[in-house]
Amino acid sequence: MHGLDVRIFHWINQWSADWQPLFVFFSEATKGWGVRIGILAVIALLIAAGPTTRKAAFVTIVTVIVANSLSNGLKHLFPLLRPCVQLDDYILYVGRLDSYGTASSHAANMAGVAAVLCYYFKWWGTPWVLVAIITGLARVYVGVHYPSQVLLGYLCGLLSALIVIRTWGAFVKTREVSGAE
User: Fold this and answer.
1) What pLDDT is recorded for position 60?
2) Distances from the Cα of 22 to the Cαs of 27, 96, 178, in angstroms?
């Protein structure tokens, strides 16, 4: 299995350098203040827009926290090396990371956001599916994750979204029942 993972990694990592600006942006965007301020502005707009968007914003924030924690927890429980640590023949487009890469937190976070937004906003959430896919590809292209680590990250994000959405639904239902009594 690892051999296939390495072959797919090399195939993506060696795509044309024309892709570099797009993939580096999607890989590193949240480290920049402009994107961080933009994310905060979108969250503020969602909170201000009404109860449904407010709920979606809250559930999205909690999902990202859970997804990030789950992917980081897996990195500590099952420490797997990143390609930029393990391989010699790759192209590194960003800074070398020495931490474990078991499950991509970037992929987990974006898959979680996409799942929550698709759940609450149906097809309006689908652009986030594209963002999640591009972010996952970017993490492979820039040389810091194997494809399997991105797929595991996607699973962490989807599982986190499912858990948070269901927990929120159960919480709301419990409040409605206790309020009716």
Assistant:
1) 96
2) 9, 19, 50
